[in-house]
Amino acid sequence: MPTIFSVFNSQVSSFSIEDPQDYRDWVKFWTSGTTKEWFSLKGYRLYDDISSFGTFEAYRPITPSDEVPASESSYPYAYHNKHAETNTAMGGHRYGSRIFYAQDSKSRHVVIKFLPSDSDEYRILRLIHETDMNSLEKACVLPVLDLLQLGNHWLSVTPRWQEVSPKLHLQTLRNALNLMHSMLKGVKFLHDRRIFHHDVKLANMVLNFCSNDQLNLATNPLYISVQEYGRLQYAMIDYDISVIFPENQVKYRLPYNESFAGSFFISDTAQGEFEYDPFAFEVGALGATFSSHITPYIPVIPMFAPLIDKMITRNIRDRFTAPEALQFFEQMQSQLTEAQLSTPFSDNEDSLTYETRDHWKGLPDDFVKQWAHYKAPPLPLFAKILRYLINPHPRLDATIVFIRKWLFFLKTGQVPSRRAKIYPPCRHNMRI
Q1: What is the reported pTM?
Q2: 384 alpha carbon, distance to own chain's centre
């Protein structure tokens, strides 16, 4: 006779994570007594639902958890405290149907997420789960504490950290530099393991401090103490659209249409290229992110200019790799003064793009001359013409892609693959 949990497992197996689900079905799943009992047997207590059905979902922990003092390390868990005004326990809101909050057997806060079983996301999180905690801490990648199998699906368990907000969490250039450093280390860790994150952005970085009172962090005693003790840490998350390549590949390419996924599009495929180097693309996207937030502070730290331009240059072969960008950054960071690091930071983005900002504007002539070989070249005329033709006529893009595929075939005798494939070096890729 089937038990309640065998029936429960079979029902969960029928869920299609890839397809859109009725939001209310997920609410029923996460808040049902059977679900809570199953997770309890696994050592996790799901947050309580404190909202009325059909309204904005809000949840809170079942049991209070002790605040870890800033003098002690809380890794891999986040520091946290109660709301300054209402004194309520650290709560949470629903970010997506696949995600829910819980506490472990020691009342520490975690995030549980449904994973498609046969997916790169699962394979990447499995790899992270099998990596030792010390390496993950150094690489600024959020650890995977547990992987649970439920029916045909897997669930990841990670520590609950807070999403980074530049306006709330970055008060000085020291904070901004630490975040930049963490992003570079995270990308290097992934690239070393053949992982293309595909969506590197500030919203996919978290820090090890949670509070319901985010707006008053500047006066939060615990948050201030964590910074003073140098224990504030950032980590990379979110592998929904990431790609992990096979071990036997040497050169990596993806079809051009996959470059449109994610939040940051750079122009590596804006001229009708039929494929792109994902790892070079990611470094470029990270450089574009830096450009968006850091450009106003280049006069304070001039070395930002060669760093950014070397990450975004259109000459793909001349672009920094992730290890090269990290090495350059660390050398730059080691030479900064306390006055530079203490400069107040305000995140005021402009309407320009990474290609139209002049990262060298106002810098001393001798500095510009010294680092001229790092300066990104201007956009070639032929590239401008192709963009002019493609932008207002999307169908022309497919035509140019088709032509470039044939030129590639005529030159190399190789047929481009729809998906990742070993190709010759970039100089054979007919790039502009």
Answers
A1: 0.87
A2: 30
